[in-house]
Amino acid sequence: MNDLKVGVIGVGALGRHHARILAGIEGVILVGVADSSEERGREAAESWGCEWYADYREMLPHIEAASIAVPTFAHLEVAKECVSHGIPMMMEKPLAGNVSDARQIAEMADKKGLTLQVGHVERFNPATVAAEPLCQNPKYIKSERLSSFSFRSTDISIVHDLMIHDLDLILGLVQSELKSVQAFGISLFGKQEDAVQARLEFENGCIADVSASRINPTAGRAMQIFSESGCTTVDFTTREVKQYAPGAELLAGVSPVEMAFQPGADIAQLRDDVFGRFITVTDADVSDDDALTAELTHFVKCVKTNSTPLVNGWTAVAALEVADEIQKAVASHAWGNGPQSLVGPRIFDTSNENQQKAA
After folding, report:
1. Which fold has domain 124-283?
2. Are 22 and 298 in contact (CB under 8 A)?
């Protein structure tokens, strides 16, 4: 099979890693990088032995696939140009800034029969891969995605910036239609929400509590999934996956609570036996694979074999649809009285429309 000629559009904080990884994937030729910043573009081109293009459109006739890591507001424009040139796309998440644009991108790719993969990289996190078989048919999910302020992705809310990862994972696990959403959030540093808390209820009864913040003093990415088989905990940062499940004695009806009331019961020992004897604790095997490398390698394979990506355009649209419902719930949640009360203690959009809603 011939080498795939790939270009990277946007080599900022994330795109530069796309270029680095693609340059090292077997069966790939990194033809060029496109970025409006000459300094950034030339540096990436020199580092990975390819051409720099100030205008990404000039690169399109020379490539067979594109990895796109530009600001979200530019996704639709770039996608239109790529589709018009018949270029398969790996588009960073979120697919677009709103559901309408996302659907348009997915529809354009479908109509042309082009591969469209969306960069929900947590799907390729080895911790996710190890956890998925352990938590089928979940009943309750609690996720937390926290970071300090990075001064990037300020054009989108925390829901589209960070929470979207967990929404995608949750939809993949639950496999049910969304029934209701409750949410509230705050905007501190700009017009977009910086922290949001949401509760999702699904038609099959599963409930998910989802928390995301980019104004947290410490970083963390974790999830708990409760299912019929037990509880699975996932730390996406340390890549630790543990499963807590009823032990043989507990399944046979032997309860430490009943044992505690027996004459001469050793309460201290029973307390030590809760985890290990009555509730088994299993550490899942997690690989050392790099998630972004796995994601980009998957994209290359899908283009070459004309197969459907793990996260295709419509999968990404579904996550954005839930994100939109969360943002609607945030906008309708009043913290107090007056035009500043809709989104949090501080909101910068004081348009007449919002003032009328708050009145």
Report:
1. Dihydrodipicolinate Reductase; domain 2 (3.30.360)
2. no
